[in-house]
Amino acid sequence: MFPEYRDLISRLKKEDAHFARLFERHNELDHEIRNMETGVVPADGRSIEVLKKEKLRLKDNLYTILRQAQTSA
Q: Is the model's pTM score more than 0.85?
């Protein structure tokens, strides 16, 4: 996710607890969705859709933080 911000992401994960929590939650959702889609964890389409929407909101929030941090650097 966001390979162009790799260094900034590493820095923010260490320096910004809020960013780190959002990033971790995004990764957790990614893992959970993948398990549901592959049948490791039983789920219906609606449950997967809800998690994907949450993951997308987190990604948008992370991107906003990255852009703001890049601008202020």
A: yes
